[in-house]
Structures are given as C-alpha cells and as structure tokens.
Amino acid sequence: MPLQFELCPGRMIGGNHPCFIIAEIGQNHQGDIEIAKEMIKMAKDCGADCAKFQKSELEYKFNKQALERPYTSKNSWGKTYGEHKRHLEFSHEQYRELQKYAAEVGIFFTASGMDEMAVEFLHEINVPFFKVGSGDTNNFPYLEKTAKKGRPMVVSSGMQSMETMRRVYKTVKQHNKNFAILQCTSAYPLEAEDVNLRVITEYQKEFPDIPIGYSGHESGISISVAAVALGAKVIERHITLDKTLKGSDHEASLVCSELAELVRSIRLVERALGSGIKQMLPCEKACHDKLGKSVVAKVKIPKGTVLTLDMLAVKVAEPMGVAAEDIFQLVGKTVTEEVEEDESLLSEVVDSYGKKAKS
C-alpha cells in the first residue's frame, strides 16, 4: 500500500483516502484579486480540495535580460516580459488576503513557489504544502532546500525523464518522506497521444512508498478521471472563468461546470473501485436467487445410488440445490433419498457432502 500522509490539516492522501483535487488558478486571475477570489469560491463550490496559485519573486526567477525582452504575444500584459509578469503577480499582502479569504470560504490554499525566495514567502505564511512546478523539478538545490522546510510536497514531472525522477525521489526522500509525484506533460493544451497515463503505473512500481498523482493540461475531464482509475491519489487541473480570456493557460483549463463534473466523476469512480476482493455481494442476492443455477437430477436417481456425472445437470431450479460450481464434488457420493428426474439435488440428500460443505 502506498504511503499515506497528512497533506493538509486533517486531510490525508494516499492509501484508501479520497483523491485530493487541486484547482490550479495559477495566473488565470488576470492580475485581478477580485477575480482570484471568485475563482477560489468557484473551486470550493465545485468540490475541489485546494485552490492553488503560482508565486514568483520575479528577480529571483528570471535574469534581467529575460525580464527586459520585448513581449508582443496576444497574451501580453506589457511591452516587456517583465511588465507582463508583474501585472500577473500578486503582492505579499494580496497573497495574505487571498489566503484569509480561502480560509473563510473553507478550502485549502497554497501556491507553487516558482523560485527559492517564493518558497521562503510561502513557508512564512504557513501554506499546508509546497507544490513544485515542472520547471523546478530538475532544480536540485531548490528541491533540497524546499524539502528541508519539512512541509509536505507535491512534485510535478513535466519535461523530465525517469532517470531524473529517480534522482528527484532520492533527493526529496532524504529530507522529507511526505511527498507525492505527479505524472505531467508540459503542453497547453495537451493532446491525448502525449498524456502517457501509463507513467502513473510505472511511477507506482518505481516509488511504491509514496502516493502518485496526475497533473493534466488536456481538454475535458475523461483523461483525468481515467488517471484516478489507474490509482492517482492527487489530481491537479487548471481552472478558468472563461476559456476565451487572454492568457495561454485558459484554453487548457476547466470552467465551473467541467470542474464540478470532474469532482463528481472522480468520487463516482472511487466508489466503483471497491476493495479488489472478488466475492458475491449482497446487492447480487436478488439476481442469484432468481437466476442462479444449481444441480438437478438429469434422470431419476434411486436411494443409495453412487452419483456419476451423467446423472446430473445444471439448471435454474426451485428450490435451489447444490451450487453449480460444486457439481464435480458430487461425483462418487451416495444419495440418501430418492431424487426424481429434474428435481433439485439438495445437499442434505447427498451423503458426506453437506457435512463437508459446512466444515
């Protein structure tokens, strides 16, 4: 059984606990704190467990030249990439305001720390867990420092190889046992052919003592639901108020109705997964009593006859006799009462059979 641990106060993940559903707001708030609050409320109303943002300290995430380069994309919020990113970045006080609002609404709040200083800030405001975005998964100094903070971690794995993910596992595990790894492909939107859900099962083999999850950027919800059926214990999906808004993430995000359906579908699949123990269930008794087959006499069988297979048949019979699957166990046994042709063969008229069945 994969390791289970408390990801957020009072909320366990892994094992048989419900899948933890992260609504990734990211920067789909357009730099507007009121839109951000509306999205937090949306995440809560749809049944997600956590509303997540992306926090950057821009001078630590980008070098000067990267911030100064012209940015003329249709999604741009400024003439340079730095101006664009500053428009989308909330201040420390705004983050505290959003965190407070999430608490009032009743949903967990965290963010991806997109650089080491952002992680320091998130640690300062006491987020329940750190999310490591795919861009920092192979940033081993960052991983080590983040792991040493002692908070649970959720690590995405877009753009990485299995060899790198083995290093990631060892690096984090050395300092922090409470973490999960998510299968992820960093493309927006993501085509089905590039999802590679089978990596989930490979991760489960490679890292059997941690929960495995899925971070998706595909259209719709079917693939994410399938990930849960494969054993994903964390699901992360981007959300938006409107897929046509400015920004590269909106198209690959879920609107309110889709997020609500994702949560509903995941919870339905979790109910359907069951225990893995194959047995006749109470809900099947009515069908069994009506249509279940049992052993009948193919011919008239006199008292004292030693049964052979050619004397027996399997039918839907009233009353129900010896179970159909036990027909071979009857061969060689003696009947203690006469049985008419086409009558049910009851266990009490077969010598030794009833006693053996009860023992």
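(ticket continues) Second input and output from the same batch:
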Amino acid sequence: MPSEIRGRRMTWGNWTIVSEFVLVSFSALSSELQALLFLLFLTIYLVTLMGNVLIILVTTADSSLQSPMYFFLRNLSFLEIGFNLVIVPKMLGTLIIQGTTISFLGCATQMYFFFFFGAAECCLLATMAYDRYVAICDPLRYPVIMGHRACAQLATASWFSGFPVATVQTTWIFSFPFCGPNRVNHFFCDSPPVIALVCADTSLFELEALTATVLFILLPFLLILGSYVRILSTIFRMPSAEGKRKAFSTCSSHLLVVSLFYSTAILTYFRPRSSNSPESKKLLSLSYTVVTPMLNPIIYSLRNSEVKAALRRVIRRTLDPQKL
C-alpha cells in the first residue's frame, strides 16, 4: 500500500503517483481578462450548440434536405456538439476558478473523446469530399453510388475510425508513470502537455503518435485535396457558366469548413517544437475546438440557399402551424 498520502499525490517508495492534474489554462492573464474570455467563450459555446442543433433539426425535418450531403452534414453537427461538450465546459471552469483540477480518470476520459471526435471528424470531412466528388464528377451514377446503405456505411466507418486511435493513444499515455509535476499547461488534456509530465522514455510513443497523426489528419486531408483537384478540373470543363456556379456553390461551404479545420490542426500538430510555444498552441487549439464548431453551422446556413430556404419554412411552420 502507499506509504503516505500528501495532498493530492500518493508516494510509493521513491515514486510520486499523480492522482489528479491542474489545468493551467489562461491563468497568466489578469482576472478581468479571464472574466471577459469566460463571457466570450460561453457565448460561443451556446451559439455552437444552438446552431448545430438547428442544423440537425432542419436537415431531419425538411423533406428537401434528405440528400447524402445533408445526411453527412447532420453527422458533422453531432460530432461538433460532442467535440464541444468534451472541451468547453471544463475550459470555462478554468476561467472562473484558478488552479482548476481534473482527476486522473477525468483527464484520460477527456483525452479519449478528444481523440475520438477529432479523428472521426477528419474522416467524415474526407467522406463529405468524396460525396461532392461523385456528385460533380459522376452525376449520372450518383444516386446508385451514394445510396442510403452506402451513406450509412460511410458515416459509420467515419465514426468508428475514432475508436482505434483514441484507445491506443489514451491507453498508452496513461500507462506511463506520472511521478513529478501535475500542472498541464493547456486548457484541456491534450497529449503533448500531458506527455511532458511523464517521467519515462516516451520516444516510441511519440513515433506512434506521429504515425497516427499522419494517418488520421494528413491522409484524409490528402484525400480531400485529391477529390477537389478532380472536382475543380471537372467544373472548369463545364460549358455552362450557370452549371459552374451551381457546382461551386455546392462545394464552397465544405471547402471553407475543411480549410478552417485543417489549417489550424496542421499548424498545431506539424509545427516544429522549437516554434510551438504553449501559448501559441493554446491559441491554435481554440481555433479548432471552439471557433470552428461555431462557424460550421453559420457557414452552411448562410452560404447554402437550400438550408436558408428550409430554415425559413421551419420558422414559418413554427410561427403559424395552421398553414401546415
């Protein structure tokens, strides 16, 4: 049994076993600025939840939004809600209470679902790019290729792709000994700041983590890039200006979402360590964990005429149900 308990750590011989972590978050900022950030992030959080729930409801209720594109958009909104629920509530807590702690199990759970939702979103964005590729480059066979069964299989595969990376990464990290400091220099339990607290050789894990990052971030990105090269090639060969405009309009929202998500993710996880300070990593992490999930429903609703029309119909039915 442990020889003694001292505060929040247990000692075993010469080893100190960390039982909980302290999230440093934005504690270097003044309390006034942290209060402003709390209000800002709380507003963004509520807008994110309402926007994504609205996308789910509209694409489910409106009969004109039952195509594969909106089926995948609905899945993306579910992912964004999950991503936000994992990260933002705890981050808001760190802005209210200095030295907010998270238990060892809580940290592992947060990291697991962060990996899960992140990997699933990368694969789902690649699936959505494939859907646009088939719709524009092979429109005659689109109903056959992207039937209900194929869409369900692609969506399921995207969701389940998060399990292996989340299970392997999280289990491996939390099997290491944590025997020293317990301050995680981040606003959530991301792998780099947590692995920095490990008191063992982590070189093999870091090689595996790089491999997983390439497979679940870079590979889907290359598939998306390849899809859009073919899409743009097809669009530019279209004889009709109206046809080009419609084709661009169906892709622009997804392309903008992909650009926002991948630009910050690649900058975060592929930058050299020498140029990747903890503070800059926090700012980049805010982009894809807080800002992008809020922008996705706004982008899809404002840049998509079908979604805007469906929103108007839903609002009219809600305000005047007698016209149903």
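Agent notes: The longest helix spans residues 104-137. The chain has eleven helices and six strands. Closing as not reproducible unless the customer responds.
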